[in-house]
């Protein structure tokens, strides 16, 4: 069973009726609850290697100051700040009902990385992973919109989700929703092994049940926006690297300008809107540094 099938029950139903249209709760036969378990989170906290900004502790009202849960340590004779103090994090979760957020887990947990890579192949878009540990009876964030489609996998505990309507047009911003979001399109309790789909931009909020903490993995499926398209287009029509960088006189500068225009026209003549979207999604998916899979002893 592939990564997509472990999140989405029926591919045709999902893309025909839910993708970018409506929130839905799914109950796959083999949900990916094993990718990052509660025990795994505890081990990561106790490893001493967790470091900001991969870790954030928040209250519903905002982020907890890092100095309350981070410490400095001496590494190779130099003091390095930003290492997570596991006891301090657990104290904040237990005593102040703070939420623990592990960012971009796909970058530093091998199994999660492989899973997100497979999801990215299915969606043809960049996919990232985040882990949330929310204490019992706590809402991690107020109603907000994400600039991504979200597949939320409930790993442990119970969480009540409310999902509201999406933005009215393309001129929306991600973040907290100041206005009344109206009646929810979906008001559902998510239990371990269930997966919630939230379309891109649909307002939502979630709270852990009163009697147990919640752990869930969010797979965010990033979509290109106009700034992404513009950046890729500029890269495609950039001046030929063979041209002189700093022409020495007016004649050579005008000649270079002529070649730049000719090159841009050639690119634009051959470029379709569909191709630009494809190139942009491909660029967004590319990692700045692909991990190697050789042993350190090789």
UniProtKB/TrEMBL annotation:
Required cofactor(s): Fe(2+)
A Pfam family that the UniProt record links to this protein: JmjC_2
PROSITE patterns membership: JMJC
Boundaries of every JmjC domain copy: 96-236
Keywords linked to the UniProt accession: Iron, Metal-binding
Superkingdom of the source species: Bacteria
PANTHER family (alphabetical): MINA53 MYC INDUCED NUCLEAR ANTIGEN, RIBOSOMAL OXYGENASE 1
Protein name, per record: JmjC domain-containing protein
């Amino acid at each position: 069973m592939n990564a997509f099938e472990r999140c989405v029950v029926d591919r045709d139903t999902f893309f025909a009726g839910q993708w970018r249209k409506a929130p839905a709760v799914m109950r796959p036969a083999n949900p990916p609850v094993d990718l990052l378990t509660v025990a795994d989170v505890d081990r990561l906290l106790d490893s001493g290697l967790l470091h900001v900004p991969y870790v954030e502790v928040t209250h519903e009202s905002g982020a907890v100051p890092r100095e309350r849960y981070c410490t400095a340590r001496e590494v190779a004779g130099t003091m390095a700040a930003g290492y997570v103090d596991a006891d301090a994090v657990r104290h904040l979760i237990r005593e102040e009902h703070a939420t623990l957020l592990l960012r971009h887990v796909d970058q530093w947990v091998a199994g999660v990385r492989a899973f997100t890579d497979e999801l990215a192949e299915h969606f043809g878009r960049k996919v990232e992973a985040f882990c949330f540990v929310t204490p019992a009876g706590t809402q991690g964030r107020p109603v907000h919109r994400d600039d991504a489609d979200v597949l939320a996998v409930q790993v442990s505990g119970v969480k009540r989700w409310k999902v509201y309507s999406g933005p009215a047009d393309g001129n929306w911003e991600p973040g907290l929703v100041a206005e009344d979001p109206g009646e929810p399109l979906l008001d559902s309790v998510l239990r371990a092994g269930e997966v919630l789909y939230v379309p891109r931009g649909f307002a939502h909020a979630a709270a852990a049940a009163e009697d147990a903490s919640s752990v869930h993995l969010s797979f965010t499926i990033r979509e290109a926006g106009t700034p992404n398209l513009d950046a890729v287009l500029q890269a495609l029509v950039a001046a030929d690297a063979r041209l002189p960088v700093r022409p020495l006189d007016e004649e050579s500068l005008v000649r270079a300008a002529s070649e730049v225009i000719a090159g841009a026209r050639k690119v634009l003549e051959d470029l379709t809107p569909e191709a630009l979207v494809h190139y942009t999604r491909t660029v967004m998916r590319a990692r700045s540094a692909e991990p190697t899979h050789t042993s350190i002893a090789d």
